[in-house]
Amino acid sequence: MKIVVGLKQVPETTNVKINEKTKNIDRRGVSGVINKYDRNALQTALDIRDVVGGTVIAMSMGPNDFAVSLQEALSLGADEAVLLSDRAFGGADTLATGYVLAEAIKKIGGVDLVIMGQQSVDADTGQMGPIVAEMLGISQVTYADEIQPKSDNELRIKRYDDNIEQEIIAKTPLMLTTTGNAGKPEYVNVVEIKNSFEKPLTTWTSKDMPVDSNRLGQSGSPTVVRRIMSPEPKERAGKMLSTDATKAAEELAGILHEENLLAEED
Amino acid sequence: MTDIRENWIFAEKSINKINSATFQLITKMKSISEIPVTVVLLESQADSFENEIKQYGPDKILTVKDDELDKADDVSVASALSGLIDKFGTPISFIFAATTFGRSVAPRLQAKLLTGLTADCLDLSFEDDLLVQTKPSYGDNIMCEIVIPDFKPQMATVRPNIFKAEKVFDDTTKIVEINDLNWDKDANIQITTHVLPAKTDENLATADRIVALGRGGKQDLNNANELANKINATVGVTRPLTDMDEFDQSQQIGQSGETVAPDLLINLGVSGSVQFTAGIENANTIVSVNTDKHAPIFKQSDYCFNGSSEDFLKALNKVL
Q1: CATH class, range A2-220
Q2: Are both B143 and B287 inside the same structural domain?
Q3: Which of A34, B14, B118, B292 has minimal CB crowding within 10 Å?
Q4: B43: closest CA of chain A, how far (Å)
Q5: Residues of A in contact with B234 (CB under 8 A)
């Protein structure tokens, strides 16, 4: 199977604040790591390859420093890596990003399976898998928990559609998105790190793919972020009950009865 | 394609019922816009979920009766929804619940229609026909205000249980039944099992009363269970407790767990991280017990007890 894994480099911590001067997100001193769900996606791809054979290609779109994460993917066992990097891609929303990823996957050609994490931990959109799947015209199974190859072109998948348990048999070509339960990530070993530098890591720009420039970056993005804010939790009265547990319990029991909070509804 | 002055809401079904998030979206969309609200319902010939939906007062329900679409996969449903837009025109907005299903179908449809979509919104409002969408990112540490000025439909998925659903008592909903919709079936996906697991925890998202345990309350599980039994409450936990054998992820309240909206929430030894409090804002009455009098949870609570949760639970179990 030819498998492409979509990886996003995200800040190591999501505990970021807004810079009061610039009104932008302050990422100073925060280093980049592979999005945690994408690690599950990568491991799922490696596990499938190890059973049915084939190639795993790690792919990411972003600035040149995203190559670090692709290098890490190679050291974790991916066979090849492709970085999609071009100023023209900058400022892209989900639709414009999905377009570039889909065009790059078309360029690779003959891809049986695309796997991505269920969502990134920074933007939290979860849209990339379905968007790319639609643009490639392939089927999708999102939020996959357990994935097993059933044959050379079929996977058996367990997932939860909220609280509904589903088992699915899916034929390739297919897009899968993985939860944190799929493909338990393994640690890198030193030999693999050394070998990873022998593996191909290529960068493609907009000139390497037959892309429509109107669909790239900001101009290809229907959504506009008007404003970013810090969340303001609504504060409540915070009335202190007695410091004596027995008295406090009596006070609360009175309040619960008075406010009718223990009554059964229909 | 023609534009139509309607806001569309996708009616999401669980097994044999409409997801309550759909009703919440109808009430919310009616309250923020004068534009007529249309609910899109896909159901089998034998079902009549439109009768339940119309109690919430949408202007119109487009009911597609098709046994094959009843429990269909994402790709087939996205194709059917795109077919409806071809047939009736492009609405101003198209809103989905941010459930697993909504978050999988909506972006698929977005890519078909080449429009914008904002995922997992916590609030919606209108400026004329412009839908203003508020969405968290960075694990709820940042809020973004997003608009889609030049494309239609303006699409969003909205987190369940953020808004309250209200029934209305007029009977003016127009029901349009569609029996001849063309859509492409996805032959590559075969759903072989579609069941509610035998072990169903009481559902936190719909519970009227919840007793929540945090790190400071985990040793009081027995007393907490006794209280939960007495007041018929569901037990929930903070994220760190899901690592313990006694609890699982379905019991987690907060940003990466369930958003809850009970009448009464009693927090035991919960410190009150943003990740947790993001999930409890819509609780009616919040009571918190904590040994730390500066615990952030007290600012998010209506009633507070500063002391041991063990003492408090024992005393409360005695008087209730």
Answers
A1: alpha beta
A2: no
A3: B292
A4: 18
A5: none
